Amino acid sequence: MVNADGNLRSSSMSRNVTSTHASCHINESYKYIFLPMCYSFTFILSLGLNSIILYRSLRRTKQWNSSLIYMFNLALTDFMYGLSLPFLIASYIKRDQWIFGDFMCRLVRFLFYFNLYCSIFFLTCISFHRYLGICHPMRTITMETKKTVRAICILVWAVIFALTSPIFRFARTATSGNNTICWDDALDSDLLHYVPYGIFLHLIGFFGPFSIIAWCYSRVVKTIFQTMNSQQFQSPVPGLNKRRKSIKTIVTITLLFALCFFPFHVTRTLFLVLRASPGIDCHTMSIVSICYKVTRPLASFNAWLNALLYFLTKDKWSQSCLKPCKPENESKSSGNIFRPFP
């Protein structure tokens, strides 16, 4: 039987689609050390770094621009995710024993995916905002007003809530032997309904936004390269240095985004497909389950990597990077991707 986090246990299956895994058992004792360590690390850094950003943002509400509004919402969702981690840490320390009740099980599982996809969508909004600021600065003036950005943020919260709310139905507690387990995906009786939903969520929540981010940053890099040899820059050496730093920042952000989310979504999609497929041998299922378990903390790392990138890159994306082709009034809203503060 596949339990809350993908463990395969020996038991009878309630549906034929999973009966092929009935005799498969995986030794995953490593996760009771590995996962609490990863989640504890994320918990400390996520709350610490994001609380600083939220505090600084709330102190400067009168100075908010489009970038800061996006960054505040991103930090808020990462901070909220960090608050849910102690429940998971306690559960793994107690070797999958869930002691917080069925409602908290559903809430914690919901918060993981809700904040995960809110984070992805806000990163996508930031990337598109940066693309407009660099490649279409005049259009940014009319499309990226504070009122518009606030409306976009509200829309993101609403859309992600609608996309992830079914998790409240699927996630639940169940008894396995003497243990009460908090299921991450769905019971076997709901599997045929959950697998299409899970794959749809991955496509809409990750693969679509990732394609948009990759396209936006590719256009930004192309624009920066085109301006490197432009004769309108009077100081070519400083200009080249700033543009090289900008490109390095873009590449770093894109790679970290892919590192955090891509392995998790690929392995989880594969795990769901195999779990619902007959005729899958135990060895294959074991490998996929372990890969899924190992990549799961990578997705949570983004909760503090976003904030860390803000502090590390705040001086590297100069607001004058493309100064000759940028309107003077847009210097505040078209600054560093992770530095909205003037």
TrEMBL record:
Domain named G-protein coupled receptors family 1 profile: residues: 49-310
UniProt-listed InterPro entries: GP183-like, GPCR_Rhodpsn, GPCR_Rhodpsn_7TM
Chief subcellular location: membrane
Membrane topology, as annotated: Multi-pass membrane protein
Primary gene name: LOC115457717
Family matches, as PANTHER family: G-PROTEIN COUPLED RECEPTOR (PTHR24237), P2Y PURINOCEPTOR 3-LIKE (PTHR24237:SF36)
Official protein name in the record: P2Y purinoceptor 3-like isoform X1
GO CC, any one term: membrane
Gene3D superfamilies: Rhodopsin 7-helix transmembrane proteins
Subcellular location: Membrane
Matching Pfam families: 7tm_1
